Amino acid sequence: MRFAFKIMNIENAFEKYKELINRYEKSVKQDTNRYFDVEEIEALVDYYLRMGEVSKAEHALVLGLKIHPINDNLRIQKAKIFLAQQRYEKALQIVNAIAVLDADTLFLRGEVLLNLGKEQEALTIFDDLVNSQDDDPELFADIAALFNQQQYYKTAFSFLKKGVEVYPDNIHLAMKLALSYQNQDMPEQALTMYNRVLDLDPYCAMAWFYVGLIYFDKENYNKALEAFDFAIAINDTDYLSWLQKGHCHFYKDELEAAKAAYRVYLDHNATDGIVWCFYAECYEDTDVQTALDYFLKSISLNESYVDAWLGVGMCQLNLDQPEKAWHYFKQALKLEPESAETYKYIGDAFKDQELFDDALEMYCNAIKFDANDARIWKEIGDIYLQESVFSQAIYFYENAFRLDNQQERLPLFMAMCYYKLGKMELMFKYLNLAESVEADARQVFLNIFPETIEIFNNRKQNK
Questions:
Q1: In the 8-state DSSP scheme, what is residue 99?
Q2: How far is CA 283 from CA 152, 262, 329, 341, in A?
Q3: Which one, 99, 109, 251, 255, has the greatest CB density within 10 A?
Q4: CA pair distance 29, 47, nearest whole angstrom
C-alpha cells in the first residue's frame, strides 16, 4: 500500500514503531483495554496489511473504531482492508462516501477502481494526482506499480517515463524505467537509463549488476565482467554478481576463474543445486571424479534439474561405466521425455557397450526431436558403416555433412561408403576433401581397402 506508515518514519523512529506493536500485541494477549490514538491505529493497520496479516489488521481496526467510532481516517483504513480482501465494491463505497478526498485517499480510490477493471476512471484520477502534486517523484513509481500489477504494462511505462522527464535526477525512477525497458526487451534503452543512474551515482551496485546482465544476454562477456566486477567492488557481498561473474568466465571457457567465482557464491548459497551443477561442469574435462561428486550433490539438492542427471551420466561414460550412465540418463529422460540431448547420450551409452541396435533406436529418437544436430546423423552413419550397410550409412552421412562438414573423418567415411557403392567419382571427391584436413587420410583409406591402389594408379596415369 502506497501510504502505509504515513504517520511514522520507520527509518528514523523504529524503536517507537516497535514499541507500539509490542504494546498493542501485549494488550491483545492479556485482553486488557488500552488506549490507542487514531494515528497509532492507522499505523497498526498499515503494518499488518504490509505483513499480509489481514485478520490482525481487521482486529486492530475494530479496536480503533470502538475508541474512535466516527473517524474518517479509520474509515479509510477499513477501505484498505476491504481492498486487501478483494472486496472492491465495499472499498469503493467507503471511499466515495468520504467528503474531502486528500491525495492519499484519491490514490486509494484509483487503486480500487483499477482492481474493478475501470482503467480509464483510475487513469483520470492518477493523471490528476501527478499533475497536482508537487515534489513527489515516488508517486509516479507507485502508480506504475499498480498498473503493472494489473498487467497494464504500457500505461505503467508511460508513468515511469513521465516521472523521469519531470524528475531527471531521481535515481529510483530512472532505475524503474530502466527495468521497464529491460522487461520489454529493449536493452539499448535500458542501458541508456542505467548509464544515467551511474552518472548520478557511480556507486550504485544494482545498476552495475543490471548493466552486466544486459551485456551477458548480448554474449559480450568481457563488458559483462567489467560491470559485475564494479558491482562486487562496491559490495563484495553481492553474491548474485559473483554468480554472474562465474557464468561469464564459464562461457568464456575460463574455468579456473569460473570455479573461484562460483565458490564464493556457493559458500553463501550452499543449497543452490543448479549452481553446483555449473561448478561440476568446470571439473568435467580435468577431474572426472570431482565433477561426478558435485553433479551428485546437485541432484541431492534439486532432483528436477535435468543437466545434473546428464552430467552424472557423462561422467560415468568417461569413467567407462556405460551401464551406470544409462541409469542416470534414464532419470533425465523421465524429467524431459522429448529431449534430443538425452536420447543422444543414451545412444552413446549403448554404443559404448556395443549394443548397436539399441543405440540406433536412441539416436533415431534424438533426430525426431532435433533434426539439426549433425553429430547424431554421423553417429548413425558410423554404426551403419561398421555394419557394412553402406547405402544407409551414406544417407545419414550426407545429412551430417549438410549440417556440419567439419566433423572429424566425415569426408573420409563418406569416401569409404561411395567406394563400396561403386561411385568412384564421389569417392575421389570426398577423399580429396578428407586429405585437405587430414594428411594421412589416403593412407588410412588404403590400409582399409588395399585393393584400391590400382584405382589410384590408373587415375594418376589417365590424368
A1: S
A2: 46, 12, 20, 20
A3: 109
A4: 18
pLDDT at res. 2: 46
Burial of 409 (0-12, 13-18, 19+ CB in 10 A): middle
One-letter amino acid for residue 176 of the chain? K
Query: By the 8 A CB rule, do 261 and 249 touch?
Result: yes
The cell numbers describing 297, all together, are 550433490
pLDDT value for 18: 81
pLDDT in tens, 32-78: 878 899 999 999 998 899 888 999 999 999 999 999 988 888 999 99
Helix crossing, 72-84 with 54-67: angle to 10°? Answer: 160
Residues 61, 45: Cα–Cα separation, whole Å? 7
pLDDT tens digits, 245-258? 999 999 999 999 99
Burial class (CB in 10 A: 0-12, 13-18, 19+), 9: exposed
Give the domains, in start order, of the chain with CATH numbers: 1-133 (1.25.40.10), 138-201 (1.25.40.10), 417-463 (no CATH)
Q: Which residues contact 213 (CB under 8 A, 6 or more apart)?
A: 182, 224, 244
